[in-house]
Each structure stands twice: as structure tokens, then as C-alpha cells.
Amino acid sequence: MFRVIDSFGTEPAFNLATYMKKKSIKSVWGKWGLKPKQFFTMFPHTPDNSFMGFVVDQAPSQSSKSPVRKTNDALVYGKKANMWADAHEYIDTIHSKFNIHGTVFRNLSEQKQYLPSYVINHGIVSGQSIQQLLRETKLFVGLGFPYDGPAPLEAIANGCVFLNPMFKPPKNSKNTKFFKDKPTTRELTSQHPYAEVYIGKPYVYTVDITNTTALELALTEIQKQDELAPYLPYEFSCEGMLQRVSVYIQNQNFCDESHWPPKQAMKQIMSKAGQSCKHACSKKGFICEPDFFKYIDNKENFQQNNIPCEEFKSFNEIIAPSFDTESKICYTQSETLLYSCAGYEHGFKRMCPCRDFIKEQIAFCTECV
Fold it and tell me: Closest Cα partner for 195 from 145, 153, 240, 138?
């Protein structure tokens, strides 16, 4: 039985070779024809895949020692000098309130070209040294790249505030080269969507860094904050990840029909026209659960929910089951590998199976463990 470690995730539209050919979807990834839950991701990018995650490195407990007080320092998240290239005005604004530190590879010509002269550059340092630096630092500064990295979680686990650049418009495969061939239609609203959505203030400030007024207000608020206790979501602790591995091994079944998560955890809603089930469930405070599609993908379910269907049809599209608001046709799914939380199309309202989730262990519903 395959379980595929997949950093950015593979949505159902990219999983089936016949569907990609039909839709002229081009990607060097995908086409494996697996059950989408067989792809295990670093972050909960799409509910269509399984969120495996990772363990965030933490400094040893300092409970028996005097705590290290935070200085008025900011550490910039960018180890290559050229990552700082378009950030001078942004860094200057932060420098008006904080001392700026970096851990940039020491190339004197590049450092002179890209790093402001006031930056205290420590060079590439050891894991132990970076932990110590983070413990002394108040602010961890995102530059907009890399996306979805582990470092912001490490910073927060050491009591730092993460300044998370907002993306307007969101970055996706159509406007960002990095995502062009990725098997996903994700739209990133910030450098670190997990930190933005699941952590937030006071540890994460997601800010439009091109808006100097908004940036200065955020920096002032951060500067006035009392020192924060180290914080790590349980799902990124060693115990939290081991719990996921254990529950997945005991309950996921990719060979036969699965009855996990339990059906009683399902909460069905209808999306707005043109909205994915991922977003429709999220708006209600839930998570889309693709394993529940099989329970709602039938004519009787449309009728029980008083959907004004004038005709019923079956097709192999990532938006099924759904209701076409123009033709009044209700569609069921003819290819179960295309059940998709991420799928959406203009004019179609999705029938969406949602579930609740455990805070800091969002891979599971409250009845799943």
C-alpha cells in the first residue's frame, strides 16, 4: 500500500491521467491514480490529502534556568542574499523600530549588493545557535518566500512574533512561476497560510507589507507586547505527530471501502455558486471530509435537501455532486477518484460533506479518535 510524502499536495484534478488529458491539464506531477488520501502533506493544504506534518525543533526546556529576556531585535527569514533584493523599503521600516539580524550565507559581494549596511549578519549557523538566537529575538520577519516553511513555527515555539507577508492578489499557479507545475490550484493569501489561519495574533501578524501605514501599526503593536510564552501547536509536537501516524495506520483503509471517519461526524452543507467545498466548510468553521462524499452522492440526498433539480445526470467532474444553477440539473459523480473538496466551477453549487476538528490536531474530528 503506497503512502506518498507530498510537500505541496496533489488535488484530485491532477491525480487521474484520463481527467488531466480531458481537461488539457499540464503538470510534470500527478497522474498516479491513487486515492487522494494516499498523499501525505507537510501542512493541511487540501482536505483531499492526508495531513501528516512534521515535528518542529524546540530548544531544551529552560525551566531550571533563568529565562532569556527578549531584546528589541528582529531576525529576517532569508538565508540567501538575493531573497532580500526587493525588500529594502520593508526592512528599512522594520529597522526604524527593531535591530535587524540575518543568517545569510556570507558572500561579501552579494551581501554588499542586497543587505543594508545596518544588518547584523551571523552567517549560516548551527541548529543550536539558531535556537538561541530565536530565544533572544522578539520578531521573526518573513520576506514572502519560502512558502509554507517550518522556520516560522520554530520561531513561534521560541516565543517570537512572526511577521507574515500578505499576498494581494493570492499567489497561485497562474500568477507565480514557483507553483506553475505543482499539482494544486491552491491560492496562498500569505507566505504561511497555516500560521495565518490556525495561529494568528498575538503570535502571527499577517500584513500587507506594501502598505507602510498598516506595517507601522503592526510593528508598534508588536513592540508594545509583553514577552510571549513559547507556543507550539500540539500537531507539530513529537507526540502530536506520533498520534497522527498511529491513528492513520489503525484506521485508514485504501484497499476496501472505508468507514472512517465515522459517518455520524458528517455535517452536510451546500456551497455558494462557484465556491469549493473546502471554502464552504471553512466558512462554517468546519473542514471538508472527502471520505463522506459517498454518503451524499445520490439522487435521494438531493431530494431530501429540497434541491430544485429538474433533471439528474452523472458525470466525471471534480465538482460533482453539485447543482447547476442555470440548467437546474443535479449531477452525481461517476468517478469516485474525482471526489474533490478543492473543485469548483462558476454557476455550480457543491453538495459538501464537512466535519468538525480537534483544535491543534485538525487532521481528526472529535469522534475520530
Answer: 153
Cis amide prior to 183 (ω within 30 degrees): no
- State whether the Cα torsion 325-329-334-336 is positive or negative: positive
Strands 348-355 and 287-288: antiparallel
Eight-class DSSP state of 99: E
Give per-residue pLDDT as tens, 28-82.
899 999 999 999 999 999 999 999 999 998 766 544 444 556 889 999 999 999 9
Pairing, β 4-5 against β 39-41: parallel
> For 51, how many CA atoms within 13 A lie in the half-sphere containing its CB?
22
Q: State residue 57's pLDDT score.
A: 84
Burial 325-351, CB ≥16 within 10 A → b, else e:
eeeebbbbbebebbbbbbbbeeebbbb
What is the per-residue pLDDT across 321-358, written as a single tens digit (0 to 9) for each? 999 999 999 999 999 999 999 999 999 999 999 999 99
Is the confidence at residue 161, as pLDDT, over 80? yes
What distance in Å separates the CA atoms of residue 129 and residue 272, rounded to the nearest whole number? 50
| Greatest C-alpha distance within the chain | 71
Whose CA is closest to 355, among 297, 284, 295?
284
For the chain, the average pLDDT equals 95
**3-state secondary structure string across 245-296:** HHHHHHHCCCCCCCCCCCHHHCEEEECCCCCCHHHHHHHCCCEECHHHHHHH
